């Protein structure tokens, strides 16, 4: 339905592969939902709203800017203070 190979989809389902943003968008379109809904954030919650906003922002970015933005997010997450 989205043009991905069965072994790729199986990898997503088992956690062996990560879904890239293009595939996430294709999946969301196929299911008729916002991409944030596929990331297990409860609808209406703060993370859901943040993911909706992030999805809208990334739509307007070039692939290079989107990659740089995601790398920034990964750097922020990796520097979370220990709890």
UniProtKB/TrEMBL annotation:
Pfam family, one: HTH_3
Top-level taxon of origin: Bacteria
Domain (HTH cro/C1-type): residue spans on this chain: 1-38
CDD domains: HTH_XRE
GO molecular function: DNA binding
Protein name: Transcriptional regulator with XRE-family HTH domain
Upper lineage: Bacteria, Pseudomonadati, Pseudomonadota, Alphaproteobacteria, Acetobacterales
């Amino acid at each position: 339905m989205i043009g991905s190979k069965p072994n790729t989809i199986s990898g997503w389902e088992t956690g062996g592969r990560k879904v890239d943003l293009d595939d996430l968008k294709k999946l969301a379109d196929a299911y008729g939902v916002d991409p944030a809904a596929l990331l297990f954030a409860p609808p209406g919650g703060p993370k859901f709203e943040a993911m909706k906003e992030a999805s809208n922002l990334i739509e307007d970015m070039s692939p290079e800017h989107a990659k740089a933005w995601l790398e920034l997010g990964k750097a922020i997450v990796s520097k979370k203070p220990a709890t």
